[in-house]
Amino acid sequence: MYYDFHLHTSFSSDSQAPMESMIQRGIALGLPGICFTEHMDLDFPPGELNFLVDLPAYEKICRELKEKYADTISVFFGLEMGLQPHLKKEIPTLATSSDFDFLIGSVHVADRLDPYKKDFYEGRTQYQAYHRYFEVVLENLKTFSCFDTCGHIDYVVRYGPEKNKDYSYRAYRDILDEILKTLIEKGIGLECNSAGFKYGLGHPNPTEDILTRYRELGGEILTLGSDGHAPEHMAYDFPKMGELLKACGFRYYTIFKKRKPEFIKL
Ligand code: HSO
Ligand code: ZN
Ligand code: ZN
Ligand code: ZN
To answer: Which CATH class is domain 4-265?
Structure first.
């Protein structure tokens, strides 16, 4: 079984799962290790959820449980940082504010709108909305270098009005190539996020064709995450994802300890 390097617990505002229940599920699944990556979306649009983690409380419990389970499963301390181009000072400061093992940079907000909500798609076609999301991903990647992997680069297709209809690498080739080349130039990894299977898309985020293209362009840093917010979603469809990644040309995936990559055979 693979390490799951994208997990949320009740320290994230959209999860109810006690951290210890997630660790116990990881042990039951026989995972070698897990990394918690709680949400920290600075300046998230006002709404029910604020996506801000109490970092000191999170770090304390995570380190205590890491010790408690040290003989059974490796537990790592990470963060999923929400990227927005105007947070030029705040995000790099956050990245060095604790001794993180692993940092994901994710785009959950584009033009101050949440693609999870309808208003992001109003007044434009799905193609235009998705293309705009990718432009914002690229702008964030040009702005920031302070994280290890880029989370779910096609997050927007989980929530669009017609989901992944008419969506492929080919349909957005130019902008996706720019994103992948920027990741590679900057030495930032690409995440393969299995939540797409959970959302019924029939593929991970990003899709196989994008993963294959990343490999073709020379991309090597690939992290695996379920984006689980509850124990039953941990390592969701990982065996299927592992086979798919091998078919895309990958032999290794990547974990991080104290922000240093280690490559593990798929
Ligand atoms: N960022 C969440 C989804 C979301 N819920 C956005 C409300 N807004 C997925 O981890
Ligand atoms: Zn979430
Ligand atoms: Zn995310
Ligand atoms: Zn997440």
So the answer is: alpha beta
